[in-house]
Amino acid sequence: MSFFEKYRQYQDFAFADYFRSLGDGDIQRIIQKDRLSELDYLALLSPAAEAHLEEMARRAHGLTVRHFGRSILLYTPIYLANHCVNRCVYCGFAVHNAIPRTRLTLEEVAAEAQLIAATGLKHVLILTGESRKHSPVSYIKDCVGVLKKYFSSIGIEIYPLEEEEYRELVDAGVDGLTLYQEVYHPAVYDRLHPAGPKKNYAFRLDAPERACRAGVRTVNVGALLGLHDWRSEAFFTGLHASYLQNKYGHLEVSISPPRMRPHGGDFEPVEKVRDKNLVQYILAYRLFMPRGGISLSTRESAFLRDHLLPLGITKMSAGSCTAVGGRCQPEAASQFAISDERDVPAMVDMLYRQGYQPVFKDWQTL
Ligand code: SF4
Hints:
This protein is an alpha/beta fold. It is about 40% helix and about 15% strand. It has helices spanning about 5-10, 15-20, 25-30, 40-45, 55-70, 105-115, 135-145, 165-170, 185-190, 200-205, 205-215, 230-245, 275-290, 300-310, 345-355, and strands spanning about 70-80, 125, 155, 175-180, 220-225, 250-255, 295, 315, 355-360. Strands 1-2-3-4-5-6-7-8 form an eight-stranded parallel β-barrel. The site of iron/sulfur cluster has 9 residues, from loops.
């Protein structure tokens, strides 16, 4: 069974009817449960649960401290290339956007790595657009070879690969995968990805599982919030994480709840996902997956990140830059605008002030 089959079990589920059937008593009972079912999780994502966020927050905080302590893993993204053959309507790097295209040389990768390493960070996430011509697996592997000298953990957020290709990268030193489905609803996915290999919904959906079979240690999944109804998208993201966790015992699974940010194209979010919605999503997921990681990026403002921290967050990016080589060349074109521009010392300071331990390293790839 693949996650696509799991998805199909709920594909025609009557979300609105289910939400209408829920009362305050149902929500209160679910919040107190030790183990939530899939439908319990969905109930906590319902409009009815919005009146119970404080109660959910208390429980989410307790569960997070019990399973993770007061610690936050810090990481930062490195954009290697922005060549892309896809036409994702919501992305500044899409092929139809007239931006300068570039790819870092191995010397430039080393220069970026040195700047990041000087901040003390040990975990990095490398990104490319989707272009097998400009950023083939062999190029990514060469970059990993350079980055290994500076960092203890290297994650990839690149186009979906075949299992054998993931294995090649794991052997080269990659230990984590971040891959957002963007939209779990197949018809909406099809509309927002008008052309390019990314149009293949099923190949993308099953990519995290291929990476698990190839031996990655961590997987981070997510939906880009704003592209479709957030409640069902949050539900399927949680289900995806739970499916992977149950099937691959060795895996450290996380979700990210990224909201759309201003970008180089003209696409506007289909749905406004409010701060309150984001909070509800984080809380519901924490109660459903007490040991699941939650990663919060610099797409969100410093104010919001500081306030979401105690609710269940376990990983945060710091000193981020969404342009290729943007740390060495600040004028380079970004994939999207970041909101929290704090550097690593500022993030560390914030975490200590809130009683949290910043973690720079919790893994060493040998
Ligand atoms: S989201 Fe990724 S695949 Fe889509 S256009 Fe942007 S860089 Fe390319």
